[in-house]
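Hi W.,

Here's what went into the run:
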Amino acid sequence: MLSIKDLKVSIEDTDILKGINLDVKPGEIHAIMGPNGSGKSTLAKVLAGREEYEVTSGSVEFAGEDLLELEVDERARKGIFMAFQYPVEIPGVTNATFLKEIINAVREEQGKEEMKAPQMLKMMREKTKMVDLPENFLKRSLNEGFSGGEKKRNEMLQMALLEPKLAIMDETDSGLDIDALKVIAKVVNEMRDKNRAFIIVTHYQRLLDYIVPDHVHVLYNGRVVKSGDKNLALQLEEKGYDWIKQEADAVSA
Amino acid sequence: MAIETQDKNISRFLTLFGEFERGLNGQKESLAHQIRQTAIGRLQELAFPTRRDEEYKYTSVTRIVTQDYDLNPSTEIAPETVDQFRVPDLDATTLVFINGQYREDLSDSDAMPKGLRMLTIEEAMNDEQAKAHVDDLLTSAAGQGDDPFVVMNAAFAQKGYFLHVPKNTVVEKPLHFLYINTDQEQPFLYSPQNMVVVESNAQATLIETFNSTAPGKAVYFGNLFNRMIVRENAHVHHYKIQRESLEAFQMNNTEVYQYQDSTYSNYTIDLGGRIVRNNLHTIHRGQNVTSNMYGSFYGRRDQHIDNHTFIDHAIPHCQSNELYKGILTDKARGVFNGKVMVRKDAQKTNAFQQNSSLVLSDKAVMDSKPQLEIFADDVKCSHGATIGQLDEDSVFYLRSRGLSDTKAREALQNAFLLEVLEFMPHEAMRNYAADQINSKFAEDI
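Here's what came out:
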């Protein structure tokens, strides 16, 4: 589904990613971990289409297409969803209007007709309940005045409504209390199926207690320095990142 | 006959007045015409403002006053055309003006809102309740006015109106002045003149909408004058939604005199016009007065939209709220000059003012000038002006969910202006204003 080959990325002449290789198949959950500044958030942002990053070499293929050639909105319509680390507050655009527009934008891409209002409303209400937000929240402005937890739940709501092929979660768990964390895990676990993949970028192992990944990769200094299964995450929890850094530094020295 | 004035552009209008008089024949002796003559006498003593005048530093009227205008444009229009400019779902009494001329056959003149008296200026001068107000209008606006556009309005107004809302009367239905302007061979001048007196404990809503059947090219000049007297504990909502041709001019003078415990709320949406200038002025004549001014504007191409407001706090315990938000793109220019005067005796004044603008292109310009002059010492006044661009993080966020770049930007611009509409109490007007703003984004002329 997603194939990243030797991806090198820099921002303002500083190399951040120095040759990333990653292969994500449908149905898989990949966790990307790593210390601060390792490049894991950059990877998520490049996949989502942020323009300030310069791809200096390598390729990213998504469902047979050159992902790097697609605009951010095209990526979204083709089934990539990015849950933001810091969702933006947009006063004046209500959640309901926004959700309706994005659902129809994606449907249009898939050649489906616009969803009828009653069906739309029913679906929105169901999913709003699923992410544990009150119904009146649909009438509020997008993320405006939301707590950190509410913003992340709103990201999950959008993900649940858009049903992407590939969801990238950029430190969605950072700063969340356990209740919000459980909501995130619940949504991911409910949406997990053989045709959908997730890339979960996280600093902490805690989220992985609730979402069991198929693969865990550790990023350090712009490279994947270690890959393994869920046990790697447990190891990191126990021992921290220092041993990984030492191993990696020894190799490159 | 050669007429001597200091300003050759004034002469142009004196000559035009001569033509106008010749067309009047028998009506020259009428009272209405005496007002006009007083006004034209005064106009001779005045000059049009230039960019050297502080109040017109950012707005040049040259383009407006160097045209030769026709005073008798055709008033032909298909009724279906009129219908497309009506405000959907608005239960109002609508008066239709085509190129400034009243069209009774298209209006609801037989269904005036209950409680509202509407007289022509002529009738008002012979009316016991109205006479004093009209006399006052004559002396201050026509005879002694300093603003040439106000004076010129009095000189060229063909049929002014006097609206009277008697004491304790709540006029449920809004009165809607629907102006529709068409494309004529020669540019024309129209001069609506409205005098509104809302007596104590009364309440009324006045709506003005301005439209063009040839929004890309019709040239004409609307020179408007409104004077409102809002007596004790009276409440007035006043809407202006302007979608004139992008080649048209509009000068809009509104003076509001407010008495104790009264509220006047103005909602001004400017989307059309080549050069638009609003002078909105409230004068406080009693305590506990509230003045609300909410405006939004969107300028593109060569549009120039100037909002000048003046709130004169002369009495203690009064409030004013002012919020203007605008978007400018292409080569458009916007001006906001919000003057708030808090005189020495106006203790306990609460004055709030905010002007925020988005400037979306390199060549678009916004000049914002909040002007607070405070001479009292126990007051709460705040003002702010921001000029910025669309937040690119917000654009990215919306796009990351599948909205195209254009749609994302539209949604954000819309949201920016929508804040102003939330203050409008009439749902039909709020929806209409939102629709007009939306269609402005899609405008392709």
